[in-house]
Amino acid sequence: MAIAAQVLDDILRTEFGFEHILYVFSGRRGIHAWICDERARKLSAYERKCIGEFLGVVSETTGQSNKFSLEQNLHPTFRRVYDNILATSFEQFVILEQGLFDNPHHVQNILSFVPIPAVKDSIQKAWETISDPIEKWNIYKEIVNERIMQLHNPQYRTVKMANPIHSVIFTYLYPRLDIEVTRQTHHLLKSPFACHPSTGRVCVPLDITTVFEFNPETVPTIDSLANEINSASSEVPDLEIHSIEDQKKFSLMKTQLYKGGYIDLFEGFVNNMTSQ
C-alpha cells in the first residue's frame, strides 16, 4: 500500500502536474487517490479513461504486468518509478519481509515469467544448493540477463517476451488500479471518514510523507470510536460548552481520529487547496 501510494504520487505529480491529491485508506487493504485540482475535476470520462489506462501497468484481473516487451525500453515514466521506488524496495519488502521464496506458489509464479524452458531449468538447478533468498534472486537476474536479455543473440531476436525481471517486480509492487472507478465520475466512492462495511475501519486520510509508518490494523473502527465518544460524554469538558456542536467537538477530540492526526491532516489539505 505504501509503495503504491508513492508510485501514484510520483506519476500524478510529475507527469500530469496535479498538486492537490488526498490519499484515503479504503478501510480494508487499498487506497483511494482524491485528485482535487480544478482541471482534474473537469476531465471528461474519455480523458479519465486515458489516464487510467496509461497508469494501468498491472492487470486488475490477472495481477500481472502487461506493458513491457523485449523489443522496447521502459517508458521514461515507468523507468523512473522502477529505478527510484520499485527495484529498490523489492528485496526488502517482497523477498525478505513477505518471504517470496518461502511460498512455492510465488516461486512458480516468478518462474512462469521465464518463457524459455531451458532457461527456467537452469535457474531451478542453480537454486538447488542455495537457501538464501537474496542470493536466489540474484541468480535469477543473472541467468535471465545472460540467457534471455541479450538482444544480439539471434536465437531470441524473434521471440516476443516481456523482460522477466521487470515483470516480476511490477507484478508484485506496482499498484493495481480500478479503471472503472477512475473513469466514471458517477461511480460511488468512500468519502474520507466513512466506514468500511466489512471491517468497520474508518477510511482515514494518509500522509504521503509518512505512509510507510501507516498500519491498517491500528486504524479506528466504528466500535472503538463509539466507545471513545461514550467515555468522553462522562468526562468534565476542559473547554466551554455552549451548544450541541461544542459537545460534538469535545467528544471528537477524545477519539483517535483527532489524537491520531487524521482530522488535522484532512483540514490542512482542504485549507491548502481552498487558499489557492
Describe what is shown at a glance.
The chain is 52% helix and 4% strand.
Produce the secondary structure layout.
Elements: H1 2-14, E1 21-25, E2 31-35, H2 38-41, H3 45-55, H4 76-97, H5 104-112, H6 117-127, H7 133-147, H8 154-157, H9 164-173, H10 179-183, E3 205-206, H11 222-233, H12 244-253, H13 256-259, H14 262-275
Keywords:
276 residues; mainly alpha; three-stranded antiparallel β-sheet; 14 helices; 52% helix; 4% strand; globular
Notes on the protein architecture:
With 276 residues, the chain is mostly helical. 52% of the residues lie in helices and 4% in strands. It has 14 helices and 3 strands. Strands 2-1-3 form a 3-stranded antiparallel β-sheet, with helices on both faces. The protein is globular, with a radius of gyration of 23 Å. The two termini are 29 Å apart.
Which strand order do you get reading across the main beta sheet? 2-1-3
Q: Poorly predicted ranges (pLDDT <50, ≥5 residues)?
A: none
Task: Please tell me the overall pLDDT.
Answer: 85
What characterizes the major β-sheet? 3 strands, antiparallel
Tell me the series of helices and strands, N- to C-terminal.
HEEHHHHHHHHHEHHHH
The 3D shape can be described as globular
